[in-house]
Amino acid sequence: MDSTSTWARLRNSDLLYSFCHSPMAVVSALLALAIILGAVCAPLIAPHNPFDLASLNLLDANNPPAWADDGSTQFLLGTDDQGRDILSAILYGSRISLLVGLASVLFSIVLGVTLGLISGYAGGRIDGVIMRIADVQLSFPAILIALLIDGIARGLMPRDLQDRLSLYVLIFAIGISGWVQYARTVRGATMVERNKEYVQAARLIGMRPFTILRRHILPNVLGPVLVIATIHLAVAIITEATLSFLGVGIPPTTPSLGTLIRIGNSYLFSGEWWISIFPGLTLVLLALSVNLLGDWLRDALNPRLG
């Protein structure tokens, strides 16, 4: 199939029609796209590099936004306690928050979909073990599981490696806390699909179970997974910000959105409100736009709604 026919099918699809006729979805997509592009292009559009310690000047610390009385046009949104430009820190910090969110969601999808397929197709004792583990994990909040895993990992790692591996530990901790919803959803869909005629026919011709799961069942259970992933992305970003705010996520020298909010919280009541307000506003807008896109996608893919 050539690209022209693919574009023609997409242009005439019900999904694109629903998107174009949903103002909330369009605005949310544009807002999320603006934040994502700002994060991706941060080295090109950021006025300063917050990672370059040689360029920081403590005399520029706690400068208010440019429109304030003591503000400077050199720092449009002001500076933090280290003299870092807030706008540049937000752009670079959004990269880290998005990276952690996307990577942890991808990890949750791979783990949850794999276990859900195995559980739904195999059934029996394997299904019972996987679902009991999922039930136990569901009894604890995701943030508590992420805190526990992060604490255990930091306790097992040498102190000199903790900061260098903190990003990977954070991705693993958030990812392992969110696989259950994918596994339970895929398990239910797999139990329905495995009894259909095309799966029975594949079994009769001697196709291996792994091939049946990969070629036939997996493509038919990815619709709900896509919706869950869209909503889970916002949760993962907020979880990263929460862990960084609590001081167990990204190191303080790395300007993620949660770290910036935590730093600004110490100065909030002394008048330097911009240090935490602007990163917090960015976090809220990003999570809200992704959540609204997830709600639209859920309604658009549900044939019972409309």
What does the secondary structure layout of this molecule look like, with pairings?
Layout: H1 3-11, H2 14-20, H3 23-40, H4 42-45, H5 86-122, H6 124-138, H7 142-156, H8 159-176, H9 179-193, H10 197-204, H11 209-246, H12 257-265, H13 274-300
Rounded to an integer, what's the Rg over CA atoms? 23 Å
Task: Count all strands and give the number.
Answer: 0
Oligomer: single chain
Instruction: Please name the fourth-level CATH homologous superfamily.
Output: MetI-like
Strand content: under 5%
- The CATH architecture assignment turns out to be Orthogonal Bundle
Give the CA-CA distance, first to last residue: 30 Å
The main sheet comes to: none
The share of residues in helices is: over 70%
Task: Indicate the low-confidence ranges by residue numbers.
Answer: none
Provide a count of the helices.
13
Q: Which fold name corresponds to the CATH topology?
A: MetI-like fold
Question: In CATH's first tier, which class applies?
Answer: Mainly Alpha
CA-based shape: globular
Number of domains: 1
Instruction: Determine the structural class based on helices, strands and strand pairing.
Output: mainly alpha
